[in-house]
Write a structure and sequence with these properties.
Layout lengths: L7 E4 L8 H10 L2 E4 L5 H11 L2
């Protein structure tokens, strides 16, 4: 990894982010994974606004 490994990643509760394979990947790399509040569009809107999407 050129930029280093993140210590923590926060995602929404999408199926791709809460799958067992993703959990194993984060654990293998020592990454703390947290998710937003389920069914809350506010948190996702803040991220999308920051990214310009």
């Amino acid at each position: 990894s050129v930029l280093g490994v993140p210590q923590q990643i926060k995602t929404d509760n999408g199926p791709g982010y809460v799958s067992q394979k993703t959990k194993l990947f984060f654990a293998a790399w020592g990454i703390v994974h947290s998710t937003g509040i389920p069914h809350s569009s506010t948190g996702q809107a803040i991220v999308e606004r920051a990214h310009g999407t």
